[in-house]
Amino acid sequence: MRIGIFGGTFNPPHNGHKKLALEIKNKAELDRIIVMPTFTPPHKEGKELAGGEHRIRMCEMMFTEDFFSISDREIRRQGKSYTYDTLVELKKEYPDDELFLIIGSDMLLSFHTWFRYADILSMATLCVATREDRVDYKQLLDYSENVLGLGENEIIIADTEPYECSSTDVRRQLSSGNDASFMTGREIYDYVRLKLLYESPFSEQKKLLREKLDDYRFLHSLNVAESAASLARIYGADEKKAYFAGLLHDIMKNENDEEMLKCIEKGGIILSRTEKYNPKLWHAIAGECYLRTELGIIDEEILSAVRYHTTGKTGMSLFDKIIYVADYVSAERAYPDVDVMRRLSFEKGLDEACLYSLQYTLKALSEREGIIHEDSLDFYNELIINKGESYDRT
Ligand code: ATP
User: Fold this and answer.
1) Is 81 in the pocket of ligand 1 (CB under 6 A)?
2) Partner of 4 for a Cys bridge, out of 33, 46, 302, 387, CB 3.0 to 4.6 A?
3) Which DSSP string corresponds to 53-88?
4) How far is the CA of 203 from the centre of ligand 1 (A)?
5) Rounded CA separation 350/338 (Å)
6) What is the distance in A from the centroid of ligand 1 to the CA of 105?
7) Does the beta carbon of 9 lie inside 6 Å of ligand 1?
8) pLDDT at 46
């Protein structure tokens, strides 16, 4: 068998890793690939470096095809993860198989500094894929010939389009609160966020939310925060504040009725008749109260956006509308018209998007004989009147 060994920090794994592995599999005609995250000492783990168990779990999510297996060998072995030691062990375990070492071109160019690199070359064939535009095929061949002493047939170089992405790029996106799922896929992205693995904005509030919300609601809140920030960017509102309000909009959603009512009472709000009969509306009202009384938030824009994110109301500000719409278009939403709704919100304007979501919600509520809050009806009427198409005389 031809076995590839693909080591790395995988902190976290991304599409560049996957592309490298698949290209080398084809080029070197490998039968299987062992993906092996390196050990990192526990004292180094933290906001920049995820623990070994997490990196293993994320590799399982990234490398799903049958020919991949994920190995915790180096993590178990602890100490510095020398490829030489790993290959000696693997040579003993697979005496009749051919071993191939998979690396990106950046790694090749410093290969002569690796511990016992000549012994590594005697145990495994190097397989390299270009990682950056700057590094060309000829440069890699020159290096392997002149520095490593390898003939053209003693190294495998996949000279394909580089995929310029790194784990550092992923972590950088996360730390600015931007969606990084296009580099990792959604499953890993959600895992990273659920486990609070890397630096990201408002980490204190996220820790609190993690305690108060279930997994689904927590991810929803993060997604609404991201959508709100994107909408704020488009429509000229404060992105950071929109992210913050989106993040906290459902903070009371998983509380029981009694807790919500207590919080509403503490916030000094008296429920209207419609609200009393509709517990589904309480989390938004309780949310505003919680932000004010427990978190000491006094920014009226944030408080209002949280309070009216479910019903809407007349006279919604730009900021209110951003949070209202973000809640409908967040990344995990999958209702039938979500694409139309996304297009309207990002291309046609917030009023069009609000109207569309109101039509959808009001229809669904009336069909199941749910109670409709007057604020939603007023909001709907206001949008129609403002549109100037109000006088249907038929
Ligand atoms: P970091 O940004 O944290 O340094 P990284 O993205 O370089 O991480 P590693 O886990 O250190 O990822 O890399 C493992 C292996 O994958 C290395 O051999 C590296 O050269 C290769 N590699 C990483 N990203 C790419 C990519 N986009 N294209 C090709 N090879 C890659």
Assistant:
1) no
2) 33
3) HHHHHHHHHH--STTEEE--HHHHH-SS--HHHHHH
4) 27
5) 15
6) 9
7) yes
8) 67
CA 155 from chain centre, in angstroms, equals 36
- At residue 370, what are phi and psi to the nearest 5 degrees? -85, 160
Exposed/middle/buried for 130, CB within 10 Å: 0-12, 13-18, 19+? buried
Shortest-distance Cα residue to atom 13 of ligand 1: 8
Angle in degrees, CA 272, 277, 279, rounded to 5: 100
Mean pLDDT of the chain, nearest integer: 94
Q: What is the pTM of this model?
A: 0.90
Take atom 14 of ligand 1 and give the residue whose Cα is closest: 8
What would the mean pLDDT of 170-199 be, rounded to a whole number?
95
Rg (CA), the chain: 27
DSSP secondary-structure letter at 97? S
- Any atom of ligand 1 within 6 Å of the Cβ of 198: no
Residue 126 near residue 149, CB atoms below 8 Å: no
Give the whole-angstrom CA distance, residue 320 versus residue 302. Answer: 8
Instruction: Give per-residue burial for 34-47: e unless 16+ CB within 10 Å, then b.
Output: bbbbbbbeeeeeee
User: What's the token pair of residue 369?
Assistant: 């004989």
Task: Report d(CA 351, CA 381) in Å as an integer.
Answer: 12
Measured over all CA atoms, what is the biggest interatomic distance in the chain, rounded to whole angstroms? 88
CA distance 108 to 339: 44
Residue 66 token pair:
């049958």
Beta bridge partners of 37: 8
Take atom 6 of ligand 1 and give the residue whose Cα is closest.
166
DSSP states of 212-261: HS-HHHHHHHHHHHHHHHHHHHHHTS-HHHHHHHHHHTTTTTTS-HHHHH
Does the pLDDT of residue 27 top 80, yes or no?
yes
How many whole angstroms separate alpha carbon 152 and alpha carbon 142?
9
* Rounded Cα distance, 210 and 201, in Å: 14
33: β partners = 4, 68
